[in-house]
Amino acid sequence: MTNENFNKANEQAEKMFMGPTRDYAKLAMDYAEKMIDAQMEAAKTYTDIGMQQARAALEVKDTEALKTYAEEQQKVAKEMTERVKGDAEKVAAMNQDFVNEARKLVETNVKNASETATKSTK
User: Fold this and answer.
1) Residue pair 18/116 in contact by the 8 Å Cβ criterion
2) 2, 21, 86, 113: which sits with the fewest CB atoms below 10 Å from its CB?
3) Alpha-carbon span 109 to 97, nearest angstrom
4) Boundaries of each Phasin domain copy (predicted)?
5) 103, 14 in Cβ contact below 8 A?
């Protein structure tokens, strides 16, 4: 009988603690991976743009080239503003997805814990 009680306790611990902990850890790792990927992509893009602009600045040799460069900088600034806005929206959407998935996970785990507690009292 002791072995049966031990197995029942292990099953309850798995359903109430260990399983949900693993599920949340997986969700958090998936989120972290997506966030890191997005950050690395953004960093590479911003670095590439910065390098292009630095190279363009090296090509300035007279006042006409300086004028052209300055006009290009305005375009680049506008594009960067749009890119940063898009990246911020992407991160916000990823955050919202994480929150929604975490909420679903909590709801499922509360339901399972309630069912387990109900079964154990019977």
Assistant:
1) no
2) 2
3) 18
4) 12-110
5) no
Q: ∠85-91-36 over CA atoms, to 5°?
A: 120
Extents of the domains making up the chain: 2-113
Beta strands in the chain (DSSP E): none
The token pair that represents 84 in the structure block: 């940063």
> How far is Cα 70 from Cα 67, in angstroms, rounded to an integer?
5
pTM for this entry? 0.75
Q: What's the pLDDT band for 117 if we cut at 50, 70, 90? A: low
Alpha-carbon gap, residue 54 to 73, rounded angstroms: 11
* pLDDT tens per residue across span 45-56: 999 999 999 999
CA–CA dist 113, 18 (Å, integer): 12
DSSP 59: T
| Cα 105 to Cα 26: distance, rounded to the nearest angstrom | 11
